[in-house]
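Practice problem: predict the structure.
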Amino acid sequence: MSAPLYIDYQATTPVAPEVAAAMRPWIESRFGNPHSPHRLGREAAAAVEVARGLVHASLGEGAEEGRLFFTSGATEAANWALKGALARLPAERRGIVTLATEHACVLDTAEWLAGQSVEADIVPVESDGLVDLDVLAARIGGRTGLVAAMLVNNEIGVIQPVAEIAAIARGAGALFFCDAVQGLGRVPLPLSACDMVALSAHKLHGPKGIGALWVRGGVDVEPLLHGGGQEGGVRSGTLSPALCVGFGEAARLMAERREQDCAHVERLWRAALATLGCDWTVNGSAGQRYRGNFNVRREGLDAARLISEVREVAFSAGSACASGSGRPSHVLSALGLGEREARSSIRLGFGRYTSEDELIRALTLIKDAAGRQLSFAA
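Answer:
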């Protein structure tokens, strides 16, 4: 049985061949613990630091003004940033403001913090998925210690104006955290506006199980994990040299191929629009978005049924984190879409290793199956 046509890049990206090759020695023969003092350990530690430098450099200008800590993924990085930063703020600044379309790792953490005497305020977005900056500014006050906003939304690809959001936060004396998981290497990251940034390797053709948190110098973050303090004295747990090396190589490739990848995605976006045609509506802003995320809906469609029917194609109805919950997407609900509209939406993601022919073939299968479904329902 042949592998399905893969257009679910927001869930995860294919591991780059160069990444897999770079990781292999650190899984097989060079298996030392990077925190051990012998030669194998020192070699592993050196590989980790080279990888850290590559990921750090991929953040662009100003990265040297902060430290980069490896984590188990972006979920840990976000939890650590939000819980850790608020724990170090004075009692009168224990408030967090974030957006209704954030990833669950931010929204669920904000909900948890609300149970720990933290004031949590979730700001709505407009029908295009973008926040109204005036509304946001009115919600950020003297008790706000932290503002969190995602650079590129994982479900609808909308690019939030994070530099402007950060300016509002800092103007009120608050820290700014950015979830840049879906945006790094795809759209410009205004690092100078950020105090903390969460990253993930598997969204940029690296391995799963590793992410990072960049923390600006002077920002205090309470440890989330306690133990040996292996990572900079503030994050405990044995690092995997293989995963770190994979992340580093993925970051290096991303920086090297950035323009080529962006041009390729733009071509795929135009091909996707032309293939599906005018029966489909794009969810979220069509202009201010990362175009490798193609979230669309068609009136009367049952997206879950469509996914089960088109087995030759790997695509989704939204975030992989929320799949199986049975609830409509909180992101689509935040746009003002009703349950029926949300359940008629699909998310298609493509990128570096998607050929135009493969994408057209996949979308044609989806389009034809959708047409059959709707004709039977008529």
